[in-house]
């Protein structure tokens, strides 16, 4: 089978401090959970008060309305709400949360799950259930799936892409989840396709080294009677970025003489969550998380309850082997720096990386040596060195930076540790209020 790729730039991203591709282990249930209610941008209104008892999976916060980026929030453990807290994260966003003390019996964990038949439901019913259960993309900023479905319905010809593209070793938890939950991923894709109303085909995009997983998904799709096809992509970073994946799929479309129309690209974690919401009437209660970095004693993939504090997860990996330089949620290239170890694992947290001094983002900055590496790897064709210089000289023309999608290839290769990606992104945010 032919392997497709994006036209230029990119790099092979290795990191032997990320956990290996092994089965996930269950993390302990947290005695105290921190359930994020929303932030100053995405408003969520609490529907329970301090002192009230809550059940596992119970609605505790309602999103302020559609099109806001906010989603309903549910308790992930049974217990009592004991406090409300807030903190400012590394993106300068103010987060609000309830602290829940675990008490009482679990209604879902360890019990036989109810199965609800969904074939007779309309696309609008499926979307409502997905919305009620607060299903989001389980990466980046956690875009609500219901909003993505509404946008996708406007397209006349739509391909739902199941993105099993692993171009970053820190995505290993999603790989493990996908392998554990083939049926949920495939039926989740079928549910979302029905909710979108006009999906013409389901296309499973798989990076070449994971082609065996792709075959397993295809076999499962055949078993479940879900029509699908598969395309192999490269694993060159940033192959899974929306822009690069779309460019790759257009090549496939041309070669195979297809008409794929527009794309709705979703990862396996959000599809499995859509399945749980519709088939088991269950919100997102846990997340597969890759915990590693040179400062972690025993890197591993863990199944973690949403709301578990990062400090507890790290303790279950044997703690720190040395004082970390910084801790990141998500990939070290594009993730968010953790400000406090009591921050919780949220729906979008697919990795926790505790970086050692030699790995950390705060290397000693050196002067540019004009090696040109940053230009070579930029998949958009920008000149990061020149943009950086102009930003620093306060003479930047904003148009120069609009193509940057923050992949961080330039940052990885720069021998002088110049913060090219961060500087360009910050400049974009200031210029466009992004
Ligand atoms: S972060 Fe921006 S400038 Fe740097 S390689 Fe990626 S797209 Fe290019
Ligand atoms: S990679 Fe770094 S040192 Fe090399 S040209 Fe770009 S900014 Fe300069």
Helix/strand layout:
Elements lengths: L2 E2 L20 E2 L5 E8 L4 E3 L6 E2 L4 E5 L9 E2 L4 E10 L5 E9 L20 H10 L12 H8 L5 E7 L7 H9 L1 H15 L2 E9 L3 H14 L4 E5 L8 H15 L5 E5 L1 H12 L6 E7 L7 E6 L4 H6 L10 E4 L6 E2 L13 E5 L17 H5 L6 H9 L16 H5 L6 H13 L2
Parallel strand pairs: 1-12, 2-15, 10-11, 10-13, 11-12, 14-18
Antiparallel strand pairs: 3-9, 4-6, 5-8, 6-7, 8-9, 14-15, 16-17, 16-18
Helix pairs in contact: 1-4, 4-5, 4-7, 10-12
One iron/sulfur cluster binds next to helix 11 and helix 12.
Walk me through the structure.
It contains 12 helices and 18 strands. By secondary structure, it is of the alpha/beta class. The chain folds into 3 domains: 3-14 and 112-279, Rossmann fold, CATH 3.40.50; 30-108, OB fold (Dihydrolipoamide Acetyltransferase, E2P) (Beta Barrel); 373-432, no CATH class. The strands form 4 sheets. A 6-stranded mixed β-sheet has the order 2-15-14-18-16-17. β11, α5 (211-224) and β12 (229-233) form a beta-alpha-beta unit. α4 (182-196) crosses α5 (211-224) and α10 packs across α12 (420-432). The radius of gyration is 22 Å and the shape is globular. The chain starts with a strand and ends with a helix. Residues 377-378, 380, 382, 384, 404-410, 420-421, 424 line the site of one iron/sulfur cluster (SF4).
